[in-house]
Amino acid sequence: MVALGLARLLTAHMRIETLAVHAGHAPDPSTGAVTPPIHLSTTFEREADGQYRAGLVYSRYANPNRTALEECLATLEGGAGAACFASGSAATATILQSLEAGAHVIAPDDAYFGTTKLMHDIFGPWKLEVSLADMTDLRSVERALRASTRLIWIETPSNPLLRVVDIASLAEIAHAHSALCVVDNTWATPVLQQPLSLGADVAMHATTKYLGGHSDVLGGALVWRTDGPVAQRIRAIQTSVGAVPSPFECWLTMRGVRTLPWRVRAHSANALALATYLTNHRRIERVHYPGLLDHSGHEIASRQMSGFGGMLSLQVCGGREAAMEAAARLRIVTRATSLGGTESLIEHRASVEGPGTRAPENLLRLSVGLEHVDDLIEDFDQALR
Ligand SMILES: *Cc1c(COP(=O)(O)O)cnc(C)c1O
User: Does residue 112's CB lie within 6 angstroms of at least one atom of ligand 1?
Assistant: First the structure.
């Protein structure tokens, strides 16, 4: 049994739908409000004896809404604790800041563009050494190891080719070299994949995406498997630097999380149906979706995930122009970056990423929303004339 602050007693065996609704939530003790209040106060009263009533001092250190969200995310990922940040990128930066100077990091050659940019442009001048590896090939990760390797960063499924890598094997490689294993679990969400149970030390999230779920709040999180020096260092950076989400942002994210399991399942069902339709379309050269039997990552994904997610990429016959034209003709699907919201979004990754992109020129990345799948299929039908 884990007692989550003032929340109801939740047991570890409870299903994720129940945890998503109740973890970090309880009627407000002072008013009985069922929906949690938003605590805007930045500072908290000190008692005459010097104590703080609820242990709260100043909201850079902790705030009730942020603590509730951290409890909730730790529960969903099966972790010992969590720290929330103002963005996914701030969460990533915290992991990099936690490393010693001169540390070497191995990251996937197709990691989220902002992650590798952060490693090179922001932490390069601070002497962070970075090797990019094709993590679908474990030997290429082993070859990249150095005596100074302190972190193996994993992202699966990857962006934008939806490549899937074996978290358990990579965590073993990391631990055999006393390195940390961190998994960016943004795309899969804890509903489909639980990296900590596969041996990773930390799960990272851009809560901006599926956890928030409505394209209206930016945020990030780090969830650790066990309390210890890594967790302490993350907490120290979070509270001293203060790249934290506001109470309202935490509240909005909590509200999104309550429906997460149901949304993720609907996103996944829509994505599989759309991927199947697009695979058979004469104007489509290739569809990248781990739920398709011929996808290179299908076998590992079937083992390590409980569903294949709401993201897919398609390559349009006829190159960049044909891809741009198809995207321009879509009526329901919106042309915009980001993912994980209720609305379907499509994006030409190569032009968004700019010079140095590895995305094929005819590739469109699709975040499949919660519209009726037949309407989405009809939209592609008319756009791919
Ligand atoms: C969006 C995203 C990030 C960065 O999150 P921000 O909130 O935009 O900083 C990191 N990783 C993945 C996989 C993402 O999709």
Answer: yes
Which residues of the chain, if any, have pLDDT below 50? 1-6
- The model's pLDDT over 70-120, given as tens digits with 9 standing for 90+, comes to 999 999 999 999 999 999 999 999 999 999 999 999 999 999 999 999 999
Inter-helix orientation angle 247-257/64-77, to 10°: 30
End-to-end CA distance of the chain: 57
Residue intervals of the chain classified under CATH 3.40.640.10 are 2-257
The pLDDT assigned to 226 comes to 98
Please confirm, yes or no, whether 60 is among the known catalytic residues. Answer: yes
Domain with CATH 3.90.1150.10 in the chain: 260-383
- Asked if 223 and 80 touch (Cβ cutoff 8 Å), the reply is no
Query: In this structure, are residues 5 and 29 in contact, taking their beta carbons and an 8 Å threshold?
Result: no
Q: What is the CATH number of domain 260-383?
A: 3.90.1150.10
Please tell me what DSSP assigns to residue 58. B
From the list 209, 235, 263, 349, the catalytic residue is: 209
Q: 2-257, what's its fold?
A: Aspartate Aminotransferase; domain 2 (3.40.640)
Q: What is the dihedral of CA 45, 51, 56, 61, to 10 degrees?
A: 110
C-alpha to C-alpha distances, 237 to 91, 93, 128, 152, 362, nearest whole angstrom:
10, 10, 17, 20, 41
pLDDT tens digit string along 13-46? 899 999 999 999 999 988 999 999 999 999 999 9
pLDDT value of position 4? 42
The residue whose CA has the least distance to atom 6 of ligand 1 is 88
Question: What pLDDT shows up at residue 352?
Answer: 87
Q: What is the pLDDT of residue 353?
A: 84
- Long-range contacts made by residues 136-140, C-beta under 8 angstroms, separation at least 24? 136/163, 136/164, 136/165, 136/296, 136/297, 138/166, 138/169, 138/170, 138/173
